[in-house]
Amino acid sequence: MTTIALAGKGGTGKTTVAALLVRHLVRRRLGTVLAIDADPSSNLNLVLGLPLTVTVGDIREEMLAGVQSGSVGTGITRHDFLKSEIRLAVEEGDRVDLLAMGRPEGQGCYCPVNHMLREIIDGLGRAYDFIVIDNEAGMEHLSRRTTRDVDILLVVTDPTVRGVKAAEGIVKLASDLQINVGRVMLVVNRVEGELPPALRQTLDGLNTAGSLQGIELAGLIPADPRVGEFDAVGRPLVELEGTSPAAKAIEALAEKLVRLPTLAGGAR
Hints:
Elements: E1 2-7, H1 14-27, E2 33-38, H2 44-48, H3 56-69, H4 78-89, E3 91-92, E4 96-100, H5 111-125, E5 130-135, H6 140-144, E6 149-157, H7 161-176, E7 180-191, H8 197-204, E8 215-222, H9 225-233, H10 245-258
Parallel strand pairs: 1-5, 1-6, 2-4, 2-5, 6-7, 7-8
Antiparallel strand pairs: 3-4
Protein backbone atom coordinates (compact mmCIF):
# COMPACT_ATOMS: atom_id res chain seq x y z
CA MET A 1 0.00 0.00 0.00
CA THR A 2 1.30 3.42 -0.98
CA THR A 3 -0.16 6.54 0.62
CA ILE A 4 0.08 9.87 -1.20
CA ALA A 5 -1.34 12.94 0.55
CA LEU A 6 -1.85 16.35 -1.01
CA ALA A 7 -1.67 19.57 0.98
CA GLY A 8 -1.35 23.28 0.34
CA LYS A 9 -3.10 26.55 0.91
CA GLY A 10 -6.59 27.02 -0.47
CA GLY A 11 -7.05 27.69 -4.17
CA THR A 12 -3.84 26.08 -5.40
CA GLY A 13 -5.59 23.24 -7.22
CA LYS A 14 -5.00 20.33 -4.82
CA THR A 15 -8.21 18.61 -5.85
CA THR A 16 -7.34 18.94 -9.54
CA VAL A 17 -3.91 17.40 -8.98
CA ALA A 18 -5.43 14.62 -6.86
CA ALA A 19 -8.03 13.81 -9.50
CA LEU A 20 -5.52 13.71 -12.36
CA LEU A 21 -3.17 11.59 -10.26
CA VAL A 22 -6.00 9.10 -9.67
CA ARG A 23 -6.85 9.28 -13.37
CA HIS A 24 -3.37 8.14 -14.33
CA LEU A 25 -3.16 5.36 -11.72
CA VAL A 26 -6.49 3.99 -12.93
CA ARG A 27 -5.86 4.34 -16.67
CA ARG A 28 -2.45 2.71 -16.43
CA ARG A 29 -3.92 0.01 -14.19
CA LEU A 30 -1.11 0.51 -11.71
CA GLY A 31 -3.32 -0.77 -8.91
CA THR A 32 -6.55 -0.20 -7.04
CA VAL A 33 -7.04 3.25 -5.53
CA LEU A 34 -8.84 4.53 -2.45
CA ALA A 35 -9.41 8.27 -2.80
CA ILE A 36 -10.05 10.01 0.51
CA ASP A 37 -11.63 13.45 0.43
CA ALA A 38 -10.41 15.07 3.65
CA ASP A 39 -11.69 18.53 2.77
CA PRO A 40 -14.97 19.47 4.53
CA SER A 41 -16.23 21.00 1.28
CA SER A 42 -16.24 17.46 -0.20
CA ASN A 43 -15.95 18.00 -3.95
CA LEU A 44 -13.43 15.32 -4.93
CA ASN A 45 -16.37 13.14 -5.96
CA LEU A 46 -17.29 15.67 -8.66
CA VAL A 47 -13.90 15.57 -10.38
CA LEU A 48 -13.78 11.78 -10.08
CA GLY A 49 -17.30 11.35 -11.46
CA LEU A 50 -18.54 9.47 -8.39
CA PRO A 51 -21.67 10.02 -6.27
CA LEU A 52 -21.52 11.11 -2.66
CA THR A 53 -24.30 10.06 -0.33
CA VAL A 54 -22.78 10.05 3.16
CA THR A 55 -19.54 11.17 4.80
CA VAL A 56 -17.54 9.95 7.77
CA GLY A 57 -18.60 13.13 9.56
CA ASP A 58 -22.24 12.19 9.09
CA ILE A 59 -21.58 8.71 10.47
CA ARG A 60 -19.68 10.09 13.46
CA GLU A 61 -22.50 12.47 14.38
CA GLU A 62 -25.11 9.75 13.88
CA MET A 63 -23.24 7.43 16.23
CA LEU A 64 -22.81 10.08 18.92
CA ALA A 65 -26.50 10.96 18.68
CA GLY A 66 -27.32 7.27 18.95
CA VAL A 67 -25.14 6.90 22.03
CA GLN A 68 -26.94 9.80 23.69
CA SER A 69 -30.36 8.38 22.83
CA GLY A 70 -29.38 4.83 23.77
CA SER A 71 -30.02 3.36 20.32
CA VAL A 72 -26.33 2.56 19.73
CA GLY A 73 -24.69 0.13 22.09
CA THR A 74 -27.52 -2.40 22.21
CA GLY A 75 -26.45 -5.56 20.39
CA ILE A 76 -23.53 -3.93 18.58
CA THR A 77 -20.34 -2.25 19.74
CA ARG A 78 -19.55 1.30 18.72
CA HIS A 79 -16.49 0.06 16.85
CA ASP A 80 -18.56 -2.46 14.87
CA PHE A 81 -21.19 0.19 14.15
CA LEU A 82 -18.58 2.58 12.76
CA LYS A 83 -16.86 -0.15 10.75
CA SER A 84 -20.12 -1.27 9.14
CA GLU A 85 -21.30 2.25 8.34
CA ILE A 86 -17.95 3.35 6.89
CA ARG A 87 -17.81 0.36 4.57
CA LEU A 88 -21.29 1.29 3.36
CA ALA A 89 -20.13 4.90 2.86
CA VAL A 90 -17.40 3.92 0.39
CA GLU A 91 -18.50 4.92 -3.11
CA GLU A 92 -17.31 2.29 -5.57
CA GLY A 93 -15.99 3.13 -9.01
CA ASP A 94 -13.90 1.46 -11.71
CA ARG A 95 -10.62 0.62 -9.91
CA VAL A 96 -11.10 3.65 -7.66
CA ASP A 97 -13.28 3.97 -4.58
CA LEU A 98 -14.04 7.15 -2.65
CA LEU A 99 -14.44 7.91 1.04
CA ALA A 100 -15.35 11.46 2.07
CA MET A 101 -14.49 12.68 5.57
CA GLY A 102 -17.07 15.44 5.53
CA ARG A 103 -17.88 18.12 8.07
CA PRO A 104 -15.68 19.03 11.01
CA GLU A 105 -16.45 18.01 14.54
CA GLY A 106 -19.17 19.59 16.61
CA GLN A 107 -19.14 20.12 20.34
CA GLY A 108 -18.02 17.45 22.77
CA CYS A 109 -15.14 14.98 23.10
CA TYR A 110 -14.32 13.14 19.90
CA CYS A 111 -10.96 11.62 20.86
CA PRO A 112 -12.21 8.04 21.41
CA VAL A 113 -14.26 8.19 18.20
CA ASN A 114 -11.33 9.55 16.21
CA HIS A 115 -9.13 6.73 17.46
CA MET A 116 -11.64 4.14 16.29
CA LEU A 117 -12.09 5.91 12.96
CA ARG A 118 -8.35 5.98 12.34
CA GLU A 119 -8.06 2.25 13.04
CA ILE A 120 -10.99 1.44 10.76
CA ILE A 121 -9.82 3.62 7.88
CA ASP A 122 -6.27 2.29 8.18
CA GLY A 123 -7.67 -1.25 7.99
CA LEU A 124 -9.85 -0.35 5.02
CA GLY A 125 -6.89 1.16 3.18
CA ARG A 126 -4.86 -2.05 3.36
CA ALA A 127 -7.13 -3.55 0.71
CA TYR A 128 -5.87 -1.02 -1.87
CA ASP A 129 -2.60 -0.53 -3.71
CA PHE A 130 -2.77 3.26 -3.46
CA ILE A 131 -4.42 5.75 -1.11
CA VAL A 132 -4.67 9.31 -2.41
CA ILE A 133 -5.74 11.85 0.23
CA ASP A 134 -6.98 15.30 -0.80
CA ASN A 135 -6.59 17.41 2.34
CA GLU A 136 -7.94 20.67 3.59
CA ALA A 137 -5.29 23.36 4.00
CA GLY A 138 -4.72 22.55 7.67
CA MET A 139 -4.21 18.78 7.31
CA GLU A 140 -5.94 18.09 10.62
CA HIS A 141 -7.66 15.04 9.13
CA LEU A 142 -4.29 13.35 8.71
CA SER A 143 -3.71 13.74 12.44
CA ARG A 144 -7.20 13.01 13.70
CA ARG A 145 -9.30 10.80 11.47
CA THR A 146 -7.07 9.29 8.78
CA THR A 147 -3.72 7.58 8.73
CA ARG A 148 -0.70 9.17 10.41
CA ASP A 149 1.66 7.47 7.92
CA VAL A 150 2.28 9.04 4.51
CA ASP A 151 4.76 7.80 1.91
CA ILE A 152 4.66 11.01 -0.12
CA LEU A 153 3.37 14.41 0.92
CA LEU A 154 2.73 16.47 -2.20
CA VAL A 155 2.58 20.16 -1.33
CA VAL A 156 0.74 22.00 -4.11
CA THR A 157 1.49 25.68 -4.66
CA ASP A 158 0.71 28.41 -7.15
CA PRO A 159 3.64 29.72 -9.23
CA THR A 160 4.68 32.47 -6.81
CA VAL A 161 7.61 32.93 -4.45
CA ARG A 162 5.18 33.48 -1.59
CA GLY A 163 3.41 30.25 -2.40
CA VAL A 164 6.64 28.27 -2.45
CA LYS A 165 7.74 29.81 0.83
CA ALA A 166 4.39 28.81 2.34
CA ALA A 167 5.42 25.19 1.77
CA GLU A 168 7.79 25.55 4.70
CA GLY A 169 4.90 26.22 7.06
CA ILE A 170 2.96 23.24 5.70
CA VAL A 171 5.90 20.91 6.24
CA LYS A 172 6.32 22.25 9.77
CA LEU A 173 2.61 21.69 10.40
CA ALA A 174 2.94 18.06 9.31
CA SER A 175 5.77 17.66 11.81
CA ASP A 176 3.77 19.36 14.58
CA LEU A 177 0.83 17.03 13.91
CA GLN A 178 3.20 14.07 14.28
CA ILE A 179 2.48 12.76 10.81
CA ASN A 180 5.07 10.23 9.66
CA VAL A 181 6.09 11.43 6.19
CA GLY A 182 8.51 9.53 3.98
CA ARG A 183 9.23 12.27 1.43
CA VAL A 184 8.00 15.82 0.92
CA MET A 185 7.67 17.00 -2.67
CA LEU A 186 6.52 20.30 -4.13
CA VAL A 187 4.15 20.61 -7.09
CA VAL A 188 3.94 24.02 -8.75
CA ASN A 189 0.51 24.23 -10.36
CA ARG A 190 -0.93 26.48 -13.10
CA VAL A 191 2.42 27.57 -14.54
CA GLU A 192 2.13 29.95 -17.50
CA GLY A 193 5.16 30.41 -19.75
CA GLU A 194 8.64 30.91 -18.36
CA LEU A 195 9.13 31.09 -14.63
CA PRO A 196 10.16 34.52 -13.27
CA PRO A 197 13.85 34.57 -12.25
CA ALA A 198 12.99 35.09 -8.56
CA LEU A 199 10.71 32.03 -8.57
CA ARG A 200 13.27 29.93 -10.42
CA GLN A 201 15.91 30.90 -7.89
CA THR A 202 13.61 29.93 -5.03
CA LEU A 203 12.90 26.55 -6.63
CA ASP A 204 16.60 25.99 -7.25
CA GLY A 205 17.12 26.42 -3.50
CA LEU A 206 14.85 23.51 -2.60
CA ASN A 207 16.46 20.67 -0.66
CA THR A 208 19.56 22.72 0.11
CA ALA A 209 20.78 24.22 3.35
CA GLY A 210 18.11 26.72 4.32
CA SER A 211 14.49 27.02 5.37
CA LEU A 212 13.23 24.79 2.55
CA GLN A 213 15.63 21.95 3.25
CA GLY A 214 14.12 18.51 2.72
CA ILE A 215 11.55 19.56 0.11
CA GLU A 216 12.03 18.14 -3.38
CA LEU A 217 10.61 19.62 -6.57
CA ALA A 218 8.26 17.01 -8.01
CA GLY A 219 7.15 18.89 -11.10
CA LEU A 220 5.58 21.89 -12.79
CA ILE A 221 1.96 21.61 -13.95
CA PRO A 222 1.08 23.99 -16.80
CA ALA A 223 -2.04 26.15 -16.76
CA ASP A 224 -4.59 24.25 -18.81
CA PRO A 225 -7.77 25.84 -20.21
CA ARG A 226 -9.29 22.38 -20.64
CA VAL A 227 -9.34 21.95 -16.86
CA GLY A 228 -11.30 25.18 -16.55
CA GLU A 229 -13.69 24.11 -19.28
CA PHE A 230 -14.40 20.80 -17.57
CA ASP A 231 -14.91 22.50 -14.22
CA ALA A 232 -17.26 25.07 -15.74
CA VAL A 233 -19.72 22.41 -16.91
CA GLY A 234 -19.19 19.96 -14.05
CA ARG A 235 -17.51 17.33 -16.19
CA PRO A 236 -15.24 14.91 -14.25
CA LEU A 237 -11.54 15.63 -14.73
CA VAL A 238 -10.82 11.90 -14.99
CA GLU A 239 -12.33 12.18 -18.47
CA LEU A 240 -9.67 14.64 -19.67
CA GLU A 241 -8.14 13.53 -22.94
CA GLY A 242 -4.48 12.56 -23.17
CA THR A 243 -3.58 15.74 -25.03
CA SER A 244 -4.38 17.88 -21.98
CA PRO A 245 -1.14 19.62 -20.89
CA ALA A 246 -2.04 19.30 -17.20
CA ALA A 247 -2.94 15.63 -17.54
CA LYS A 248 0.29 14.89 -19.41
CA ALA A 249 2.37 16.67 -16.76
CA ILE A 250 0.70 14.75 -13.93
CA GLU A 251 1.17 11.49 -15.83
CA ALA A 252 4.91 12.20 -15.78
CA LEU A 253 4.69 13.11 -12.09
CA ALA A 254 2.83 9.89 -11.28
CA GLU A 255 5.43 7.79 -13.08
CA LYS A 256 8.13 9.49 -11.02
CA LEU A 257 6.27 8.79 -7.78
CA VAL A 258 5.75 5.09 -8.39
CA ARG A 259 9.45 4.66 -9.23
CA LEU A 260 10.69 6.23 -6.00
CA PRO A 261 12.80 3.86 -3.88
CA THR A 262 10.58 4.44 -0.83
CA LEU A 263 7.62 3.14 -2.78
CA ALA A 264 9.30 0.08 -4.27
CA GLY A 265 6.97 -2.90 -4.10
CA GLY A 266 3.99 -0.72 -3.18
CA ALA A 267 4.22 -1.67 0.48
CA ARG A 268 5.60 -0.25 3.67
